[in-house]
Amino acid sequence: MTTRTPAFPEGFLWGGATAANQIEGAYDVGGKGLSIQDVMPHGLQTLSTQEPTDDNLKHEAIDFYHRYAEDIALFAEMGFRTYRFSIAWTRIFPNGDDAEPNEEGLAFYDRVLDELEKYGIEPVVTISHYETPLHLAREYGGWRNRALIDLYVTYATTLFERYKGRVRHWLTFNEINALFHFPFMAGGIELNRDDVEDADLYQAAHNELVASALATKVARRVDPENKIGCMVIAVPRYGLTPDPADQRKAQEETQLDFVFGDVHVRGQYPGHYLRLLREKGIELDITDADREALRNTVDFVSFSYYMSVCESADPARQTKGEGNVVGGIPNPTLEASEWGWQIDPVGLRIVLNDFWDRWQLPLFIVENGLGAKDVLVDSGEGKTVEDDYRIAYLNDHLYQVGEAITDGVDVLGYTAWGCIDLVSASKAELSKRYGFIYVDRNDDGSGTLARYRKRSFDWYRDVIASNGAVLRPSHGEDA
């Protein structure tokens, strides 16, 4: 038996990904306004506080706002070809509905782009990453309100015009289908999911889809070289048993996951979704102009991938696992991370093939990684983290990406999530670490903020330098 080396194309975009609210800190510096994240000190565990509180780790995060040059130099040392980051809406429009943008915020991202250009690292920019301006959430009701469509388009247009020629790849909304699970974080709707009327939730989804499509149209008008992508959560859903009812349940949930991608790629709602709305008695506020706008479809599909789940039609089997944050039932054949997120490298190959077969557009894996409780140790040559578990996780997932490429899937790139330790979105913790770079800051806010290279830092550098040739199959899987 011989081991096959996965074939990654020349020009494959290797890199890492972060979000502004999880790394920047400086939440009240440089004219920045408050976002919903500034009143979410405990992630998804509680809804929000009335005002910002001192226990919100995101307020300082890892201080990328002041240390971006140091961090980007470390990314360059790993050989990053691309870096996905988000722009904080409230750095540009502090309240979301301001008459003029905040120059100091725009200038900050100019400086970030300067550093990336110095090292030849291509930016991939997320326009809205889970940080709706708090003013828009509380005074407008979040994305339930159609007024946010024009406000978002104004914000996006400002970015396209300011960074014309400097940013080519744009993502309109982070994990846009998360709205059905986390209405406050993904839609600025300050209610628990069970308290949101279905009609309001589906209208908010429609408003975000129209805003995304209109921004896509503007991006091409400002610069025809722009490439616009949608970004969704990818979760393979397997039938828990061979029972056809379980298989149908898995299909139904998968179709609902696909809706946002379908609209972005095909420019219209699929029939099964229209049936769902009819059966729920929901009539969307959708205009002819909306239908025309939705025809502005994307150039590529990007997604996050962390886990898979099972589905069953049997109510007695509806046991939710600790890590199944988007529903589903734990898979009894899989192991899980310390946070209960089930580990399924083959699921990534399945996602890539399913998305490619469905949409026939280039795909971009813009989030994937392992959150773990890393321990900083002295190696004799300096402090590090011996994170062989992270290396194994990433190797196994990236090997499956190579297999999907060999299957014929067009994959643009891979940006490992949390390439530098950051505040987690789900728990708002720093102890849930993803990075190749350890940041000395703890959940109680203590620490020096010093940066240290983990063992995975050198490993990922070798993966990039070899264009994936050093990746190996796991569990004796041979060609």
UniProtKB/TrEMBL annotation:
Leading EC class: hydrolase
Cited SUPFAM superfamilies: (Trans)glycosidases
Keywords: Glycosidase, Hydrolase
Source domain of life: Bacteria
Name of the protein in its database record: 6-phospho-beta-glucosidase
Parts forming coiled coils: none
Organism: Corynebacterium glyciniphilum AJ 3170
One GO cellular component term: cytosol
Family: Belongs to the glycosyl hydrolase 1 family.
Xref: Pfam families: Glyco_hydro_1 (PF00232)
